[in-house]
């Protein structure tokens, strides 16, 4: 008997608190509300003062939406910075996980593994070809190093002359890699097609 009366008293207090909160949330028809009337409502389960609803002070809102610049007022950024942003912050959009049935998943997995196997075979074939070329160059350099030079030249003369690379880039020329100043980032315009001598 005492438990049911305590329960009904608790229900009454909760209902009173709920109706008080509802009156705070409902818009009033009065044209002006002072701060003293808004804080005078009873809040039985809270020891803090009520805060008015709405955006925090100083927030720039227009019609319930944050103010954004229109596209024509935005400053066009440098393409280098755009590329860096794409590389650093590329996880802005994460595609949803694939949802598929058992057979479709098995087909997808088989095709994916076959593609990885094909890519690995291509990579290994390319590495083998490069290794053979490197070994051939190393063998040719070793043969030049151990060979006697023409006439009275000593051993290794041909190797030293070959490593100097005189005349390879024409008389007094430089490799094409040094024709442009070395920079950390690429130029805005990679190649000037309108250039004329």
TrEMBL record:
Any one of the GO BP annotations: mitochondrial translation
Compositional bias per record (Low complexity), positions renumbered to this chain: 29-51
Originating organism: Sporothrix schenckii 1099-18
Protein name: Uncharacterized protein
Region Disordered, residue ranges: 29-76
Gene3D superfamilies: 6.10.250.3440
UniProt cross-references to InterPro entries, sorted A to Z: Ribosomal_mL40_fung
Coiled coil: none
Gene Ontology CC annotations of this record: mitochondrion
Any one GO molecular function term: structural constituent of ribosome
